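In this supplementary section we document a worked example of the pipeline. Step one takes a protein sequence of length 394 as its only input; no multiple sequence alignment statistics are reported here. Step two produces a three-dimensional model, which step three serialises into structure tokens for compact storage. The input and output of this example are shown verbatim.
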Amino acid sequence: MNKLITLLFLILSLGCSNQQTGEEDRIIKHLESQLDYAVKNAESLATSELISPRTSENGKLKLVKTRDWTSGFFSGNLWMMYELTGDEKWKESALKFTLPLEQEKWNGNTHDMGFKMYCSFGQAIKYTDNPEYREILIQSAKTLSTRFNPVVGCIRSWDHNSDKWDYPVIIDNMMNLELLLWAAKETGNENFKEIAIKHAETTIKNHFRDNYSSYHVIDYNPQTGEVQHKNTHQGYADESAWSRGQAWGLYGFTMLYRETGNDEFLGQAERIADFILSQPDIKQGEIPYWDFDAPGIPDEPLDASAGAIIASALFELSTFSDKQREYVSVARNLLATLSTDKFLAPVGENEGFLLKHSTGHKPHDSEIDEPLVYADYYFLEAIIRNRAIKTKDE
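The serialised model returned by step three reads:
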């Protein structure tokens, strides 16, 4: 295993050659073997309701219902393995975990439609020509758009915690806008795009501090659109920088620029990147703690999911920015660290998840130092994006 990780580090850090390409194939085989174990593990425990792996709980695999915000990631992982290998078995497995999510296209009680549907059916549509998947995604976008309040200028995130917030909007919501932008292109319905752009513009206005770190939750008055509270829910404190939240912002605004060509969004992504890269040792590939301002550093839990999201986002941002070399270097350093024995699970362990040491919700003592399915998703996406950059540079 140590030899395998060393080879991956060399592949990610250096240019591509025929020999390195061969070693990269060996690395993909490792990930493929682990995902094969993950599929068997999930299938052995799945029920008519519990279908999708999310994390490990008390040493056992935890499956969730389709309504869970993480339900689309596992099928997305399988679709990406299909892209990496071309093996039809991954397409078949991906469909098994994708199709049960169709019912979520009508679920208007959540803002997480993008996470659930675009990470699953959005991946599926890349590799199939089934028109039903297109219609499922369009209906999902329609459902998501019903949560937009034009007075506020944002899509409502949560319907819970009404004792705390009247109209909560979280930075994570940036990730669900890609579904709307896709639907706008597919249908010609500019309303989808207008909602996404307005949400992003309102987020720039209210979610960010002077140093371009982000609040987690902004609470609006739904009648006037005024900001009522600026809080956190999963971070250390209201004024701290929850690391995954910063990652969501970086990824979201990079994606917005890709889809709109709006320079305001590119500038925002670069400013968020500047803040993240100002954190200690991130440039050298150190994986973030769960909150950049957590009081017990260096004894605080790490968050591999934040590291994977940042790496994936930086790879894409590098394709648009004058800081290409810096962004690619940092992303490859992060990817190399995630691929060491400390984070990458041996085959047959970690309940089938690829990465170890993520943190879901530290303030609620939930999913601390556990694998998380979305960490694996953005890890695989980062590998694919890195491969694309290397191929372009050859």
